[in-house]
Write a structure and sequence with these properties.
The structure is a single chain. It is built from 11 helices and 10 strands. A hairpin with a 3-residue loop joins strand 4 and strand 5. The strands form 2 sheets. It has a 5-stranded antiparallel β-sheet with strand order 1-5-4-3-2, with helices on one face. A 5-stranded mixed β-sheet has the order 8-7-6-9-10.
Length: 318
C-alpha cells in the first residue's frame, strides 16, 4: 500500500524486526527442534532452555517455560519463512494493522505508574493518537513500561512519544503530602483515588485533541473512571492487558517517565537514592528517613497507607 500523501514527519518505514518472542506448545517445540537439527543449525547451551541453535544471522532459544526467543538481524526472515508457515501455521508478524485495526484509529490510551511503589507519586497518563503516529512508535520499538528494563530506555521512549506531532499527552498526579491527604479524602480507597487521577488526565488530553473513545488498562471491574468523566461523544473502554495497544503502551511509558523524574527529585530532597517497589530495601530506607527527619517527615516521600510505612516507623522507635 502506497504511503504517498502521508505526513513525512510522522511516518517512517518500519525497521526489520530483530527480536521476536512467542509461546509454543510441546508439539510445536519438538517440530521446531527437528527442523533446526535437520537443517544443520549449530546447537549451543543456554540456561533454562530446552534447546538453542545458531543459524544464519539469527539465534533461536526455546525456554523450558514454553517461550521461544528469536533474535538477530535475520529474525524477520526466519519468522516469515520458517516459524509461521512451517511451525505455528499462524501468520502474525507485520500484520498488526490487519489483526488490530482499532490500534490505528483515533483514540485515547490510559495507564498508571507508581501504584505498587512505597515511595513516589501515583501517576496517571493519557495519550491521544492515531494512524501514522502509532506506526512511527511501532517502528521505533515502543513497548509498555513493564517490558522496558532501564530508566534511560523509558525516558528515551517518552521523548519519542512527546515529540510526535499531533499527539496529545496529559498526566495527573499529586505531591506526596497532597497524595496522602487525598487518600484519606477518598475514603482510604486507592481505586477511587486512581479513578480520579485517570479522569483528570483523560479530560485534559481530550480537551487538547478529542477522540471518540479511549482504552484503559483495567484495574477494577467497577466503572469508577467512567462515573467521573463528563465528556460528550466519548466512550471509555477497559480491559486487562490493554498495553498491547500501542497508544496505551505510550501512556504507560509517559506515566513511568513522570514517576522516574519525581523519584529523582524526592531522592535529592532526602539525600537517599530511593528504590522502587515496597520490599525490604524500601522499608529500610523509610526507616532511615524517619530516624533522620522524624516520623512526620515520611509523608513527604512515601505512601503512608502502605503497611511498609507503618513497619518503618515502628522499627525506628517512633
Amino acid at each position: 500500500m502506497s504511503r504517498k500523501g502521508k505526513n513525512p514527519e510522522l511516518y517512517c518505514e518500519p525497521k526489520k524486526a530483530a527480536l521476536h518472542t512467542v509461546k509454543l506448545g510441546g508439539d510445536q517445540a519438538e517440530k521446531l527442534d527437528s527442523w533446526l537439527d535437520r537443517h544443520l543449525w549449530a546447537p549451543y547451551s543456554v540456561a533454562y532452555a530446552r534447546f538453542a541453535y545458531k543459524g544464519p544471522d539469527v539465534n533461536v532459544v526455546m525456554y523450558n517455560s514454553g517461550k521461544l526467543v528469536v533474535q538477530g538481524k535475520g529474525t524477520e526472515d526466519f519468522v516469515r519463512y520458517v516459524l509461521e508457515p512451517e511451525i505455528t501455521g499462524v501468520v502474525e508478524l507485520g500484520y498488526d494493522e490487519v489483526l488490530h485495526p482499532e490500534w490505528y484509529q483515533l483514540h485515547a490510551g490510559v495507564d498508571e505508574s507508581g501504584k505498587g511503589d512505597l515511595f513516589g507519586p501515583l501517576v496517571s497518563a493519557c495519550v491521544v493518537a492515531d494512524g501514522d503516529a502509532v506506526r512511527a512508535w511501532v517502528a521505533g520499538g515502543l513497548k509498555e513500561s513493564k517490558k522496558v528494563s532501564s530508566d534511560a530506555a523509558v525516558l528515551k521512549m517518552a521523548k519519542m512519544v512527546k515529540n510526535t506531532k499531533g499527539v496529545a499527552v496529559k498526566v495527573s498526579y499529586a505531591g506526596m503530602e497532597k497524595y496522602n491527604a487525598l487518600y484519606i479524602k477518598f475514603g482510604r480507597n486507592l481505586n477511587k483515588l486512581l479513578a480520579w487521577f485517570h479522569a483528570t488526565s483523560i479530560s485534559g488530553a481530550i480537551a487538547v485533541r478529542h477522540a471518540p473513545w479511549g482504552m484503559l488498562d483495567q484495574f477494577t471491574k467497577q466503572p469508577l473512571v467512567q462515573r467521573q468523566l463528563n465528556i460528550e461523544n466519548f466512550e471509555l473502554k477497559m480491559r486487562t492487558k490493554a498495553e498491547e495497544d500501542p497508544v496505551v503502551a505510550a501512556a504507560s511509558i509517559i506515566a513511568r517517565a513522570t514517576y522516574i523524574y519525581a523519584m529523582r527529585k524526592l531522592s535529592e530532597e532526602c539525600g537517599i537514592e530511593l528504590v522502587k517497589g515496597a520490599g525490604e530495601k524500601a522499608r529500610e530506607q523509610a526507616e532511615q528517613i524517619v530516624k533522620k527527619f522524624g516520623a512526620e517527615s515520611l509523608k513527604k516521600y512515601a505512601k503512608l497507607h502502605f503497611k511498609t510505612a507503618g513497619e518503618a516507623v515502628k522499627a525506628a522507635g517512633e
